[in-house]
C-alpha cells in the first residue's frame, strides 16, 4: 500500500492518467480518533484528481457503530451492486439482488493443519529449561498463527517477571487501577520514556479446556499450521521453522482468543454450514444476513459474547479446526504506555493499568482479558510474561525543553516516566520545568501517584512553581460542578502561555472520547486570550506547533 500511495503522488503523473478507470473506496475507521478514515478519504480524493470515476460515493466504516463496519458496509455494497448493474447488466444476469441459495457454497479454509505422530517428532525442545521452553513455544505458535501482526515479531523481545502488583485506588471505590513493576528475566531491552510495552496475556485454563471439549479437539495432538499453498516453505520471515510441531492446546492458548473477543459476522455464516440442527442453522443464517444484522448486534457485540459462549449456544455445530484457526479472533498483544524511566529503574519496566470490568445490558459481568490477568498474578509465582517494546506517539523530550503535560486518569502513566527522567537530568544540570495537569474523580479514591507528584512539586523539583512548572489536579466529582483538566488549564492560562513562549512542547495522553478535543479547544482559547489574537489565528498557531513537533497526543478508545 505504501508503494502504491507513493506512486500515486509522483509529480510526473498526468492529471487525466486514470481517465476511464472506474473505482470504489470503502474505508475501515474508528470515529473515536481525530483522523477518522483519513486514508480512505485521501485515497478517494487522489484517485478522483487523477481522472478516475467513482462508481459510488465512498463508504466510511466506523468501528464505533453498534454493528461495527457492517453498519455502513451493507448499504454501501447494495448500492455498489446496483450501480454496477446499471453500468453493465451482464455483470448480474439475474439482477443485483439475486442471492445464490446453495447452502453448500462455501470457500475452502485458507489454512491447513497437519497432524504428526508423536514417535516421529523430535521432542528435544520440550525438555528445554523453563524459560527457553516458553520462548520456543511462544515463537513457534505465533509464527504459525493466521493473526500475525506485521509490526510485532513472533518471538518476544524479552520475557518479564512481575515483582510488584500494587492497587492505586481506595478499596471499594468502584475503580481498580494497578501499578505493576516487572524485571527483565531474559535479555534487557533498552527503552525510552514515552515508549509502549506490548504484553501477550495468558488465558483462563478452564476456558481453554472447555473450548477443546466443546470442539472435540485432542489437546495432546501435535500439529503444524500453514497457509494453503505454503506447504513447501519451511521457514517464515524471521527464520522460525514452520515444520516443527506444537501441541494443539499450546497453539490455542497462545494464538486464539476464545474467551474474550467477539466473533465477526462471517463466523456465524460459516457456523451455519456445519450446524446439524435445523433451528440452529436457520438462526445462524439469519444472523449472517443483512436483515439479521441488528439482532446479531444485540446478541453478539452488545453482550460481548465470546467465541466459546457462541459455540456453546449452538451445540450442533462441529466446525473443523482449520476453520476455527482461521475465524477465531487472534489473541492479540495489549499495548500499555510505560510509566517508568530506565534511568531511574535499571533492569525494570513499570506499567499503570486500569483493570477493566463492566456489565452488559443483560447484567452479565465482563472483564478485560489482559488487565484482569495481570491483576490476578502473584509476584511470588514467577510467571514468564512475553513482551515487546515499541515506540509510542510521545517522543522523549530533550532536557532543555519546558513541558506542558495533560494526563487525566491512567493518561498520566507516561508522564510519571517523564518526571522521573527529568529529576535525574536535574542532577547533572538544571533541566527545564514541567507543568502537569492531572485529573481524577475524587481526591480520596483515585488520586493516582499522589505522593510521587507532590514530592516532585516541592523543593525546586521538576514540577515546582519555583522552577516555572506546576502541578494542578482536577477532581471531577468532589464538587457539584464537574471540573476537568481543561478547566484547570484555563485557570493557569498565563502560566501555560509563558511556557509556550519559552518554547515548551505539549503532550496530551488519555481517553480518545472527548478529552483531546476539549484540551485542544482550551489551548486555542489560551493562545487567543494571552496573545491577543483571533480564535482562527490561535488554531493556525496550534497547527504550526503540531507541524513543528511540539504538540503530541496519545489517545485510546
TrEMBL record:
<dbReference type="Pfam" id="PF00258">
    <property type="entry name" value="Flavodoxin_1"/>
</dbReference>
<keyword id="KW-0274">FAD</keyword>
<feature type="domain" description="Flavodoxin-like">
    <location>
        <begin position="1"/>
        <end position="81"/>
    </location>
</feature>
<dbReference type="InterPro" id="IPR001094">
    <property type="entry name" value="Flavdoxin-like"/>
</dbReference>
<dbReference type="InterPro" id="IPR029039">
    <property type="entry name" value="Flavoprotein-like_sf"/>
</dbReference>
<dbReference type="InterPro" id="IPR017927">
    <property type="entry name" value="FAD-bd_FR_type"/>
</dbReference>
<dbReference type="Pfam" id="PF00175">
    <property type="entry name" value="NAD_binding_1"/>
</dbReference>
<dbReference type="InterPro" id="IPR001709">
    <property type="entry name" value="Flavoprot_Pyr_Nucl_cyt_Rdtase"/>
</dbReference>
<keyword id="KW-0521">NADP</keyword>
<dbReference type="GO" id="GO:0010181">
    <property type="term" value="F:FMN binding"/>
</dbReference>
<dbReference type="InterPro" id="IPR023173">
    <property type="entry name" value="NADPH_Cyt_P450_Rdtase_alpha"/>
</dbReference>
<feature type="domain" description="FAD-binding FR-type">
    <location>
        <begin position="155"/>
        <end position="397"/>
    </location>
</feature>
<dbReference type="InterPro" id="IPR039261">
    <property type="entry name" value="FNR_nucleotide-bd"/>
</dbReference>
<protein>
    <recommendedName>
        <fullName>NADPH-dependent diflavin oxidoreductase 1</fullName>
    </recommendedName>
</protein>
<keyword id="KW-0285">Flavoprotein</keyword>
<dbReference type="InterPro" id="IPR017938">
    <property type="entry name" value="Riboflavin_synthase-like_b-brl"/>
</dbReference>
<dbReference type="GO" id="GO:0016491">
    <property type="term" value="F:oxidoreductase activity"/>
</dbReference>
<dbReference type="InterPro" id="IPR003097">
    <property type="entry name" value="CysJ-like_FAD-binding"/>
</dbReference>
<dbReference type="Pfam" id="PF00667">
    <property type="entry name" value="FAD_binding_1"/>
</dbReference>
<dbReference type="InterPro" id="IPR001433">
    <property type="entry name" value="OxRdtase_FAD/NAD-bd"/>
</dbReference>
<dbReference type="InterPro" id="IPR008254">
    <property type="entry name" value="Flavodoxin/NO_synth"/>
</dbReference>
<keyword id="KW-0963">Cytoplasm</keyword>
<keyword id="KW-0560">Oxidoreductase</keyword>
<keyword id="KW-0288">FMN</keyword>
Amino acid at each position: 500500500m505504501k508503494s502504491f500511495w507513493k506512486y500515486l503522488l509522483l509529480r510526473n503523473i498526468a492529471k487525466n492518467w486514470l481517465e476511464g478507470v472506474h473505482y470504489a473506496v470503502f474505508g475501515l475507521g474508528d470515529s473515536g480518533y481525530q483522523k477518522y478514515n483519513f486514508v480512505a478519504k485521501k485515497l478517494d480524493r487522489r484517485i478522483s484528481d487523477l481522472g478516475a470515476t467513482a462508481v459510488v460515493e465512498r463508504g466510511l466504516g466506523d468501528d464505533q457503530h453498534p454493528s461495527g463496519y457492517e453498519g455502513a458496509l451493507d448499504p454501501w455494497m447494495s448500492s455498489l451492486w446496483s450501480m454496477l448493474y446499471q453500468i453493465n447488466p451482464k455483470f448480474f444476469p439475474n439482477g443485483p439482488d439475486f442471492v445464490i441459495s446453495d447452502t453448500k457454497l462455501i470457500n475452502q479454509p485458507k489454512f491447513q493443519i497437519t497432524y504428526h505422530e508423536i514417535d516421529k517428532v523430535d521432542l528435544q525442545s520440550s525438555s528445554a529449561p523453563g524459560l527457553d521452553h516458553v520462548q520456543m513455544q511462544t515463537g513457534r505458535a505465533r509464527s504459525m498463527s493466521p493473526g500475525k501482526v506485521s509490526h510485532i515479531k513472533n518471538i518476544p523481545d524479552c520475557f518479564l517477571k512481575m515483582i510488584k502488583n500494587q492497587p492505586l485506588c481506595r478499596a471499594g471505590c468502584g475503580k481498580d487501577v494497578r501499578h505493576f513493576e516487572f524485571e527483565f528475566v531474559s535479555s534487557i531491552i533498552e527503552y525510552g520514556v514515552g515508549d509502549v510495552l506490548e504484553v501477550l496475556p495468558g488465558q483462563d485454563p478452564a476456558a481453554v479446556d472447555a473450548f477443546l471439549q466443546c470442539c472435540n479437539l485432542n489437546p495432546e495432538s501435535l500439529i503444524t499450521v500453514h497457509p494453503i499453498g505454503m506447504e513447501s516453505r519451511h521457514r517464515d520471515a524471521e527464520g522460525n521453522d514452520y515444520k516443527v510441531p506444537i501441541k494443539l492446546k499450546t497453539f490455542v492458548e497462545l494464538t486464539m482468543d476464545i474467551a474474550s473477543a467477539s466473533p465477526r459476522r462471517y463466523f456465524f455464516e460459516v457456523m451455519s454450514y456445519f450446524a446439524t440442527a435445523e433451528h440452529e442453522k436457520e438462526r445462524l443464517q439469519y444472523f449472517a444476513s443483512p436483515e439479521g444484522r441488528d439482532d446479531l448486534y444485540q446478541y453478539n457485540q452488545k453482550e460481548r459474547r465470546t467465541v466459546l459462549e457462541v459455540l456453546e449456544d449452538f451445540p450442533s455445530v462441529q466446525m473443523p479446526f482449520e476453520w476455527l484457526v482461521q475465524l477465531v479472533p487472534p489473541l492479540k498483544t495489549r499495548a500499555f504506555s510505560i510509566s517508568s524511566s530506565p534511568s531511574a529503574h535499571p533492569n525494570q519496566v513499570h506499567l499503570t493499568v486500569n483493570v477493566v470490568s463492566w456489565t452488559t445490558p443483560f447484567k452479565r459481568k465482563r472483564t478485560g482479558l489482559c488487565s484482569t490477568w495481570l491483576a490476578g498474578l502473584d509476584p511470588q509465582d514467577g510467571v514468564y510474561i512475553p513482551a515487546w517494546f515499541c515506540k509510542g506517539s510521545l517522543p522523549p523530550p530533550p532536557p532543555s525543553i519546558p513541558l506542558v503535560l495533560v494526563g487525566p486518569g491512567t493518561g498520566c502513566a507516561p508522564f510519571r516516566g517523564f518526571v522521573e527522567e527529568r529529576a535525574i537530568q536535574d542532577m547533572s544540570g538544571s533541566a527545564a520545568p514541567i507543568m502537569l495537569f492531572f485529573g481524577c474523580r475524587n481526591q480520596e479514591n483515585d488520586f493516582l501517584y499522589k505522593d510521587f507528584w507532590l514530592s516532585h512539586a516541592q523543593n525546586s523539583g521538576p514540577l515546582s512553581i519555583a522552577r516555572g512548572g506546576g502541578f494542578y489536579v482536577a477532581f471531577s466529582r468532589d464538587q457539584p460542578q464537574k471540573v476537568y483538566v481543561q478547566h484547570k488549564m484555563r485557570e493557569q492560562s498565563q502560566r501555560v502561555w509563558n511556557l509556550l513562549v519559552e518554547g515548551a512542547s505539549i503532550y496530551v495522553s488519555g481517553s480518545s472520547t472527548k478529552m483531546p478535543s476539549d484540551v485542544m479547544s482550551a489551548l486555542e482559547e489560551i493562545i487567543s486570550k494571552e496573545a491577543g489574537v483571533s480564535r482562527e489565528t490561535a488554531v493556525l498557531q496550534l497547527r504550526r506547533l503540531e507541524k513543528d513537533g511540539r504538540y503530541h497526543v496519545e489517545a485510546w478508545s
